[in-house]
Design a protein that fits this description.
Helix 7 crosses helix 11 and helix 23 crosses helix 24. This protein has 6 domains: about 210 residues, Rossmann fold (3-Layer(aba) Sandwich); about 110 residues, Yeast translation eEF2 (G' domain); about 140 residues, Translation factors (Elongation Factor Tu (Ef-tu), domain 3); about 70 residues, Elongation Factor G (Translational Gtpase), domain 3 (Alpha-Beta Plaits, 2-Layer Sandwich); about 240 residues, Ribosomal Protein S5, domain 2, CATH 3.30.230.10; about 120 residues, Alpha-Beta Plaits (2-Layer Sandwich), CATH 3.30.70. It has an 8-stranded antiparallel sheet. Strands 2-3-1-4-5-6-7 form a 7-stranded mixed sheet, with helices on both faces. Strands 26, 27, 29, 30, 31 and 32 form a 6-stranded mixed sheet that branches. It contains 34 helices and 36 strands. The chain has about 1050 residues and is of the alpha+beta class. Bound molecules: guanosine-5'-triphosphate and magnesium ion. Guanosine-5'-triphosphate binds next to helix 2 and helix 6.
């Protein structure tokens, strides 16, 4: 075993939008090279990789699974992945383990949202993509396009996909340039610029052989190479020349037998590009011939003869034109050959791939501080080198990555080991109660050799080898009980597996929840976490129908949580078991799994729990005015602690939406920076992530994002006024140097500013200053300006009252955190708000003796608690006073509908409060593509209703898009004359949408709801007056 063997491995995945034919394509590859697990006759019909019942029933793939294939002398591990949005996390797990990706696009439907998503995923994971244009037959039979029209359509799709890739490339290009400009010297040297790869070249080029044209249903396909070989002798040209000529505006001049451009043809010629003339037209002839009753036999025979195909006469005699066609085409242009030769040629082997994927897999870390154990560091670097080289020698450190755990019924495990010995699978590590299901790890080995019975360290993503003892909880030791090669559902036991292979591992069930790094040494960096496209958002509460089954349910939930990489199981603050899934289809499968496999009890499932947020009205169109509003001290809410010693004034303002967005999206980075994982200075250990393309430190990245957001917002109102812009920016930056905390949970999209301490009070009370911790961490305030505060305080610090004020700072922060976690409307988190809290304490009136400072405490509880509650109440009251608004989550929705069903489709959209963004006729097809925003709260059953009303003709995909405030005032009561005229005096106004949503959340949470029991209160009012 050596490098030569590893060079013969390809790890690839199939990626595409839902229903573009991934599993059908996989079927053909398996039938041809899977060692007989699938009969060629069943290829395309069986959908071998969709082995779960639910997958077959719904005809969509729900999980990614791998199969080992042998093509020529190559070993190919093929991973089929789902295209449905609900299962997009499985695309991440597939991409992480693969070096190459076949990106399928349906030639009729073209590029869709998930096509974008999978291209992005492959780009992030540094997977080398090849393009497969599938369902070419539909262009012929369904759309009845001419070869020329079909060519234009294919050209457009290739162009579009290249366009998407080039935006990813330019994103990287720009961030590379930025990081060089922002580099230590700020100088741009030629060296620097050369290191940036700026390839303008298209990613996908049929001439290069990385685009295949296939029809997975009929089992044929080709790349341009096949046809170039075919015609080389006929046209008397070299294969290489033909490869270049078979795409783009290249024409064949029959007189001169030359390949020419359009000009070389002379005017008036009706010549077609060579791709049309030599590639598409013959295909069209075959399809037309096969569809003609008997008339086309001659043509087919010609094809059979000229390509020397051996088609059994029985198939040739078949009356069914479809079978005839498949028989001829699949022999003429066998699908598996076309696709797999492209895979072998254009996709890297593990050695080549790991050398450039390493920067994504284990980002380089620059250790700034020398105080670390150099032995550990040296070994960790060695391990990284070994991964980079894909060293498969037995001496190499053994490193693997588990991208997900999956459950297999224990009875499905092979009963015999690699040497035919009988295994006892039932002494599983899970103990007797969980032995019905066995958990396997879906893993790839990146270095060394993994052997049966070996003990390995299981490292979580947070592990840091340099921190030694403190990292104990992030590392465990486990024994590998079985290793399997995966054949879809089938498992083939092996004794060892070496670098570059994909395997299933038994024995890690107790150690890994979702993903982990495996290593033979503790001194190894964990792999970077995978990027997921969406977060699980659809939540329901679950309880057993019979309360006695609670134990079974809890066990079931625990198993489900482990078996599904994407589900989230939590217990809400009110003790409900909450299950979060990616969407309706995913949720339904989870519930089914729970009922039938994991818990095996009957369940009650609540209606979906939709999350909302709370904010205040305001569109912030004038940056300067908005600031003034905040500094105008009149507009505040005042609360006093029960003991009367602390007066709290809270002001609230809406943050610019750009800033809210940045805070929302950067939660992970923020928690790293604020949580102190990435230090500014003075830390004993400092690590800068140096992953390629993100050469800047997280702090830089964050500060830049925040400043960019701010500039975007300010320039909106001041496009032309340079001075105004600068002035405004200066003021905002000043404000941003006062960030005391973010909330809720320290990283949310709400800001607490420190009070303007210069505004001194004249009485004896002392202001709780706070400290701009977050600004300092983010580098928005330097320590010197923060030092100002320290200077002010240092002179006063001696007095006990000041010490007390300082001690109360954390109570103010806690109060702010509590308020932002639960707003006044319906206890949902606040969103995009900024608070300034001026809390001042006055000396205690009761003289506390020195020895017993808490003596005066307290009929109202501890003072810290009082301050916290008062701050919380003040914040909530401030929001109520400033026109509170409910914010709801919105889906972006892409619908495809035939023209005749546009009416019913719009009716469904209207019923669901959807906002249509655009509608577009798809060129050359009878489909309309409609984009719309649909509120999450209205999305349940949306797909079903749509299907019902359009007889299944229109389909919709939903992606979580953004948060949006409802414009309506939930407490609307007609006041002005016009309003009263329109709505009456208010007694008969029905609650608006916003109010209805709020009430339903309040009811669910058991909060008081103001019900309008009395509809016409006029009479009572008259009565009351008389009394
Ligand atoms: N006309 C035509 N239909 C095809 C072709 N390839 C696949 N199909 C059909 O497209 C449908 C979807 O095929 P699948 O292979 O299940 O698609 P998929 O991409 O695996 O779908 P998901 O895994 O759910 O994302 C099936 O009805 C196939 O028969 C083709 O080349 N031509
Ligand atoms: Mg599929």
């Amino acid at each position: 075993m050596g490098d030569l063997d590893t060079r013969k491995i390809r790890n690839i995945c199939v990626l595409a939008h839902v229903d573009h034919g991934k599993t059908t394509l996989a079927d053909h590859l398996i039938a041809a090279t899977g060692g007989g697990v699938l009969h060629p006759k069943l290829a395309g019909k069986l959908r071998f990789m969709d082995y779960l019942d639910e997958e077959q029933r719904r005809a969509i793939t729900m999980k990614s699974s791998s199969i080992a294939l042998h093509y020529k002398d190559y070993e190919i591990n093929l991973i089929d992945s789902p295209g449905h949005m609900d299962f997009c996390s499985e695309v991440s797990t597939a991409a992480r383990l693969s070096d190459g990706g076949l990106v399928l696009v349906d030639a009729v439907e073209g590029v869709h949202i998930q096509t974008h998503a999978v291209l992005r995923q492959s780009w992030i994971e540094k997977v080398t993509p090849c393009l497969v244009l599938n369902k070419i037959d539909r262009l012929i039979c369904e759309l009845k396009l001419s070869p020329m029209e079909a060519y234009n359509r294919l050209l457009r799709i290739v162009h579009e996909v290249n366009g998407i890739m080039s935006t990813y490339k330019s994103e990287k290009y720009l961030s590379d340039v930025d990081s060089i400009l922002a580099g230590p010297s700020g100088e741009v040297s030629d060296d620097n610029l050369e290191s940036i790869e700026d390839d303008e070249e298209d990613t996908f080029q049929p001439q290069k052989g990385n685009v295949a044209f296939v029809c997975a249903l009929d089992g044929w396909g080709f790349t341009i190479n096949e046809f170039a070989d075919l015609y080389a002798s006929k046209l008397g040209a070299s294969t290489a020349a033909l490869q270049k000529a078979f795409w783009g505006p290249r024409y064949f001049n029959p007189k001169t037998k030359m390949i020419v451009g359009k000009k070389g043809l002379g005017g008036g010629s009706k010549a077609r590009p060579m791709f049309v003339q030599f590639v598409l037209e013959p295909l069209w002839h075959v399809y037309q011939a096969a569809s003609e009753p008997d008339g086309g036999k001659g043509m087919l025979e010609k094809v059979i003869k000229s390509f020397n195909l051996s088609v059994p006469p029985r198939e040739l005699q078949n009356k069914d034109s479809k079978i005839l066609l498949q028989a001829v085409m699949s022999r003429w242009l066998p699908l598996s050959d076309a696709v797999l030769s492209m895979v072998v040629k254009c996709m890297p082997d593990p050695i080549a791939a790991q050398s450039f994927r390493i920067s994504r897999l284990i980002p380089n870390r620059e250790i700034l501080n020398k105080g670390v154990d150099s032995n550990v560091l040296a070994e960790a670097n060695l391990v990284r080198k070994s991964v980079e080289a894909c060293d498969s020698s037995p001496e190499a450190p053994c490193v693997g990555f588990v991208s997900k755990m999956f459950a297999v019924p224990t009875k499905m495990l092979p009963q015999r080991g690699p040497h035919g010995e009988i295994l006892n699978n039932f002494t599983d590590e899970g103990g007797t109660s969980e032995s019905d299901e066995c958990f396997l790890a879906f893993a790839r080995i990146f270095s060394g050799v993994l052997t049966l019975g070996q003990r390995v360290f299981v490292l979580s993503a947070l592990y840091d080898p340099l921190r030694g003892q403190s990292m104990q909880k992030h590392v465990q030791e486990a024994e590998l009980q079985s290793l399997y090669l995966m054949m879809g559902q089938g498992l083939k036991p092996v004794t060892c597996a070496r670098a570059g292979n994909i395997v299933a591992i038994r024995g890690l069930g107790q150690h890994i929840l979702k993903s982990a790094t495996l290593s033979s040494t503790r001194n190894c960096w964990p792999f970077s976490s995978m990027a997921f496209q969406v977060a699980p958002t659809l939540k329901v509460a679950i309880e057993p129908s019979d309360p006695a089954d609670m134990g079974a349910l809890m066990k079931g939930l625990r198993l489900l949580n482990r078996a599904d990489p994407f589900v989230e199981v939590t217990v809400s603050s009110r003790g409900e078991h909450v299950l979060a899934a990616a969407g309706e289809v995913h949720l339904e499968r989870c519930i089914k799994d729970l009922k039938e496999r994991f818990a095996k009890v009957s369940l009650e499932v609540s209606p979906p729990l939709v999350s909302y947020k709370e904010t205040i009205e305001g569109d912030l169109s004038n940056p300067l005015e908005d600031l003034k509003l905040l500094s105008a001290s009149s507009d505040y809410v005042e609360k006093i602690t029960p003991n009367g010693r602390c007066v709290i004034r809270a002001q609230v303002m809406k943050l610019p939406s750009t800033l809210t967005k940045v805070l929302d999206e950067s939660a992970d980075l923020l928690s790293d920076v604020i949580g102190g994982k990435v230090g500014q200075s003075g830390k004993s250990l400092e690590i800068h992530r140096l992953s390629v393309g993100e050469d800047e430190s997280p702090i830089e990245v964050l500060r830049k994002r925040i400043v960019d957001a701010l500039e975007g917002y300010i320039s909106y109102g001041n496009e032309n006024d340079e001075d105004q812009f600068e002035k405004c920016k200066g003021k905002w930056l000043k404000l941003l140097s006062r960030i005391w905390a973010l909330g809720p949970r320290q990283v949310g999209p709400n800001i607490l500013f420190t009070p303007d301490y210069k505004r001194e009070n004249n009485d004896s009370s002392v202001l709780i200053h706070g400290f701009p911790h977050v600004s300092v961490r983010l580098g928005l305030a330097d320590n010197s300006s923060a030092g100002d505060i320290a200077a002010v305080t240092s002179s006063e610090v001696i007095q006990p009252l000041y010490i007390e004020a300082e001690n109360l700072e954390s109570s103010v922060i806690s109060g702010f955190q509590m308020a932002t976690a639960a707003g006044p409307l319906c206890d949902e988190p606040m969103w995009g708000l900024a608070f300034i809290i001026e809390a001042s304490i006055s000396p205690s009136t009761v003289q506390a003796s020195e020895s017993e400072p808490n003596q005066q405490s307290e009929q109202y509880g501890p003072f810290t608690g009082q301050v916290m509650t008062a701050v919380k109440d003040a914040c909530r009251a401030a929001v109520l006073q400033r026109k509170p608004r409910l914010v709801e989550a919105m889906y972006f929705c892409e619908l495809n509908t035939p023209t005749e069903y546009l009416g019913p489709m719009y009716a469904v959209l209207a019923r669901r409060r959807a906002r249509v963004l655009k509608e577009e006729m798809q060129e050359g097809s009878p489909l309309f593509t409609v984009h719309a925003y649909v509120p999450v709260s209205e999305s349940f059953g949306f797909a079903d209703e749509l299907r019902r009303w359009t007889s299944g003709a229109s389909s919709a995909l939903l992606v979580l898009s953004h948060w949006e405030a409802l414009p309506e005032d939930p407490f609307f009561v007609p006041k002005t004359e016009e309003e009263i005229e329109e709505f009456g005096d208010g007694s008969s106004v029905l609650p608006n949408t916003s109010r209805k949503l709020i009430d339903s959340v309040r009811r669910r949470k058991g909060l008081p709801v103001e019900e309008k029991v009395v509809q016409h209160a006029t009479k009572q009012r008259t009565l009351a007056r008389k009394v």
